[in-house]
Amino acid sequence: MLLEEEPATLIRHTVKNFNIFPDKEAVSRVSESLSTLQQARDLRLREAENSLKKLSRQLNTLSSQHNELTGSHSSAAHASEIARLDTQKFRTAKAASDLEMETERLASQAADLAARLQELELQGDDGAPPGAADPVDDEVLLRLKVYRSLGIELERDEKDGEWSKAVIRNDRKGDVHVVNMDKKFSRFFYANYFWQTL
């Protein structure tokens, strides 16, 4: 009977009937593939970890720099400084414009005074022009010229011939003032008033 044979013989015959060599090779190939795949996964994992550590260090460095910059810089102080500088710029520009206008006015006045001085120098040592009849009239005319150059026109009273009214023109401001002169006020008072109006 079949069971009367030795077990070793039965096992040998059974093994011979099953061809397991191709299966063993397939298992071996699968095992090698799994090993190669595991090595590749480990390598990629190490590279990802190294890249993550590098990015983490960069993030820490940038965070530290950002905190330092935000700590040293105040947006409110910056806005306040910009507003102050803008105000200072506009004030400086206005002052420069005012000074330029004042310079033009003074230059014009200086040119008028220089021309008047030249006229006086040409009149001679005694201050009278050739053929002048009355030095007092020349003095009055000279004063009137100086007043007119400053923008002041004087008018005499028809009754007594005294100066009774002054018209003061300020071309720079575009103003005209009419002053009725009264004898109860001194010449010094009117001179100060004229200068303040100019």
TrEMBL record:
<dbReference type="GO" id="GO:0005634">
    <property type="term" value="C:nucleus"/>
</dbReference>
<dbReference type="GO" id="GO:0031262">
    <property type="term" value="C:Ndc80 complex"/>
</dbReference>
<keyword id="KW-0131">Cell cycle</keyword>
<dbReference type="InterPro" id="IPR013252">
    <property type="entry name" value="Ndc80_Spc24"/>
</dbReference>
<dbReference type="Pfam" id="PF08286">
    <property type="entry name" value="Spc24"/>
</dbReference>
<keyword id="KW-0175">Coiled coil</keyword>
<keyword id="KW-0539">Nucleus</keyword>
<dbReference type="GO" id="GO:0051301">
    <property type="term" value="P:cell division"/>
</dbReference>
<dbReference type="InterPro" id="IPR038066">
    <property type="entry name" value="Spc24_Fungi_globular_sf"/>
</dbReference>
<keyword id="KW-0158">Chromosome</keyword>
<keyword id="KW-0137">Centromere</keyword>
<feature type="coiled-coil region">
    <location>
        <begin position="45"/>
        <end position="72"/>
    </location>
</feature>
<dbReference type="GO" id="GO:0007059">
    <property type="term" value="P:chromosome segregation"/>
</dbReference>
<comment type="similarity">
    <text>Belongs to the SPC24 family.</text>
</comment>
<comment type="function">
    <text>Acts as a component of the essential kinetochore-associated NDC80 complex, which is required for chromosome segregation and spindle checkpoint activity.</text>
</comment>
<feature type="coiled-coil region">
    <location>
        <begin position="96"/>
        <end position="123"/>
    </location>
</feature>
<keyword id="KW-0132">Cell division</keyword>
<protein>
    <recommendedName>
        <fullName>Kinetochore protein Spc24</fullName>
    </recommendedName>
</protein>
<dbReference type="GO" id="GO:0008017">
    <property type="term" value="F:microtubule binding"/>
</dbReference>
<comment type="subunit">
    <text>Component of the NDC80 complex.</text>
</comment>
<dbReference type="GO" id="GO:0005815">
    <property type="term" value="C:microtubule organizing center"/>
</dbReference>
<keyword id="KW-0498">Mitosis</keyword>
<keyword id="KW-0995">Kinetochore</keyword>
